[in-house]
Amino acid sequence: MHLLIIEDDRDAADYLVKAFREAGHIADHAGDGEDGLQLALDGDYDVLIVDRMLPKRDGLSVIGALRDKSVETPVLILSALGQVDDRVKGLRSGGDDYLAKPYAFSELLARVEVLARRRGSRGEETVYRVGDLELNRLSHEVSRAGQEVQLQPREFRLLEYLMRHAGQVVTRTMLLENVWDYHFDPQTNVIDVHISRLRSKIDKGFAQPLLHTIRGAGYMIRDGAR
Questions:
Q1: One domain for residues 87 and 188
Q2: Quick one: pLDDT at residue 150?
Q3: Distance CA 204, CA 206 (A)
Q4: What CATH number is attached to the domain comprising 40?
C-alpha cells in the first residue's frame, strides 16, 4: 500500500511511517493541512491517515476539500478527539473510518488494510505488471511467468516503487527518500546491494531481464531491452 500520513506531531508521524514501512508499505508524511492536501491531490495513495487538529488547515477541512474535488481516496481519521459526536462529525465530513488516540498499531494496520481492499474492490489499480512480472500491492504477492517470487519487505517496497515508475529512470536519491527515507550520500552502496538481490530474484533464469542499471543515472524496470 502507498499511504499518506497527515500529522503535525513529528514523533507520532515518525513512529507511524517507520511502523508502516516495517510492515512492508510505503508511507509519506505531511506536517500540516495545506501540505497534506496538496500531496493528497497530487499523489496516487491507497489510504490517507489524517489527524483532525492540524496547523494551516484542519483535518476535516482537508477531507472536505478532497471530496469537493471528487478525490475518493479512503480516509482514516486518527484523532485524540474520540467522543461519539467527534466521530460522527468526522465520518459525516467525508471520512471512511475513525480511530481515537491512543490506539494499537495492529488495529490501525487492520483498518487501513480494510480500506485499501474496499478501494481495490471499486476497480482501483492494485496490481502492477511489467512484462510477465506481476506485483499485487494488497496481498504482497509477486510472480514472474506464473512462478511465485519470495521477497523481503524492503525488497517488495523497492520493487513496488520501481514498478510504479516503470519505463522511467529512478535515481538513487529517489529510492533513498521514498523506500528507505534516508537523506544522505546517494552514492552509498545500500541501493546497489538491494538492487542486486532483487535482480537475482526477478531476472535470474529468465531470458529477458526486466531490471536495468542506467549508467550514471539510476535504475529502470521495463519490458524489453533497448
A1: no
A2: 94
A3: 6
A4: 3.40.50.2300
Residue of 42, 31, 24, 8 whose CA lies nearest to 152: 24
Structural domain count, the chain: 2
Range of the domain at 78: 2-121
Q: Cell numbers of 138, please?
A: 494488497
Residues 14 and 45 in one domain: yes
Q: Say if residue 14 is in the same domain as residue 116.
A: yes
Q: With a cut of 80, say whether residue 31 has pLDDT above it.
A: yes
**45: buried, middle or exposed (CB in 10 Å: 19+, 13-18, 0-12)?**
buried
Residue 91 is which amino acid?
L
CA-closest candidate to residue 172, choices 154, 193, 187: 187
Threshold 0.70, pTM exceeds: no
Alpha-carbon radius of gyration of the chain: 19
The strand pair at 2-6 and 26-30 is best described as: parallel
**102, 121, 140 - which closes a domain:** 121
Q: What digits encode the pLDDT tens for the residues 172-213?
A: 888 887 787 665 565 668 888 999 999 999 999 898 999 999
Distance CA 186, CA 171 (A): 9
- Alpha-carbon distance of 27 to 21, in angstroms, equals 7
